[in-house]
Amino acid sequence: MLAACGLGGPAAVTTPVPGATSTPIQVASAPRITPPSVTPPAPPGTNLPAFRCADAAGGKAGSANITGVRVAESAGYDRFVLQFDGAVPSYTVKRQAKPIFRTGASGQTVALTGLAGALVQVHSSTGAGTYSGPTDFANSGFVVLNEARLTEDFEGYVSWGLGLSRPACLRTFTLNDPARLVVDFATASS
């Protein structure tokens, strides 16, 4: 029966009938070669920690300088990233009810855009070097992360205030090569 359909054997030969229309017979293509079964690597970001509505801490005691700061927006979260020239030093990420932050030892405060905030602090043991890149990422237009501003950079202590449009759960993790501290804020409402 498969041969009658043009499958399973050599192409069938037909004789045209005068006055009849016919559709050409199609022969099935050769079977596809299936590659060996290999599990592909997981796409980036699939092993991320869950969002938590809690403060975070981690890193390693040691010396590292901030070499870059970035903000980004992705489906489901807004991101704040600190990049280092060595291993990610000790850090804390603390959520705040208001986006008001102290600016160093002066005790003065600065209010950032938003209704809530988060304070990201890193401590490098040697206190060497200071960050020399952009220090204020304002009016980002992101869903949750409105503004990121350097609020302290003194003797190994670096603090960034983050102005948030509303309180948000976060996930904090580190990456290597280059060393980065990543703070994501969930953009979906809880």
Number of helices: 0
The biggest sheet, with number of strands, parallel, antiparallel or mixed sense and barrel status, is: 6 strands, antiparallel
Strand content: 35-45%
How many angstroms does the end-to-end distance come to? 60 Å
Order of helices and strands: EEEEEEEEEEEE
Helix content: under 10%
What integer is the average pLDDT? Answer: 81
Rg over alpha carbons? 29 Å
Q: How would you classify the helix and strand content by structural class?
A: mainly beta
Strand order of the main beta sheet, please?
1-4-7-10-9-8
Give keywords:
single chain; 4-stranded antiparallel beta sheet; disordered N terminus
Describe the model.
This protein has 190 residues and is mainly β. The chain contains no helices and twelve strands. It has strands at residues 56-58, 66-74, 77-84, 90-96, 100-102, 109-111, 116-123, 136-137, 145-154, 157-164, 170-175, 179-186. The strands form three sheets. The chain has a six-stranded antiparallel beta sheet with strand order 1-4-7-10-9-8, with no helix packed on it. It has a four-stranded antiparallel beta sheet with strand order 2-3-12-11, with no helix packed on it. It has a two-stranded antiparallel sheet with strand order 5-6. A hairpin with a 7-residue loop joins β8 (136-137) and β9 (145-154). The protein is globular, with a radius of gyration of 29 Å. The N and C termini lie far apart (60 Å).
